[in-house]
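INSTRUCTION: Work out how this chain folds

Fields: amino acid sequence; protein C-alpha cells

Chain under study, with its fold:
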Amino acid sequence: MATAWGDESVRKTGVPSPMYLMGACVCDDTETETRQRLALLKPKGARMAAMDIDHVIVAAVPMSQWNTAERARRKCLERLLSLLETEYNVDTLVLERREISQDRNDIRFIDGLRSRRFIGPIRVELCAGETDARLWLPDQLLGAYGDAQAGTGRYDEFLGHVRTVFIDSD
C-alpha cells in the first residue's frame, strides 16, 4: 500500500475560468529523503518531473458550478479519495491541516463517504504543512498547473505526466 500527500488550490484570476483544484502525489519516501530530493531540484531551470512519482489533480472547472469553494472541495476530495484508493493502491492520504472547524467538517464528510461505501478503508491524516516536506509536493504540483492555465509557467513536460480529472456538478 502507498501514501499520497495532498493539497488544494483555488485560482480565480488570470485563468480562463475560476477553478478549484485538489492534487495528490503518491510518495513513500521518508520526509528526509524528500527534502534531499527537493534540494536537488532547486537550481533555476531544474525539471519538476525528476522525482518520478505519480501526480493526480482533480479539477472543479468552472468553480461557479458549485455554490461554494467548500462544496467544490468536497466533490474534488470525494473523487480523489476514490481514485487514489482504487487506481493507485493508496491506503493513506495526508492533507495539510486547515482551521479546526474545517478539519472537523472534512473528517465528518470522509466518514460519510465511508459509511455510504463510496470509499473503502483509506485513511485521511491531517498535518501542518510546514512540518513535512512531502506536503510541498502537491503544493508545487498545483502551483505549476495553475500557472500553466494562466499562461505564466512553462511546465508542459512535467504536466504531460500528470493525470488530471475534471469533475461535473451533477
Summary: The radius of gyration is 15 Å. Residues 30 and 110 are 26 Å apart (CA to CA). The chain has a mean pLDDT of 89. The first strand starts at residue 2 and ends at 11.
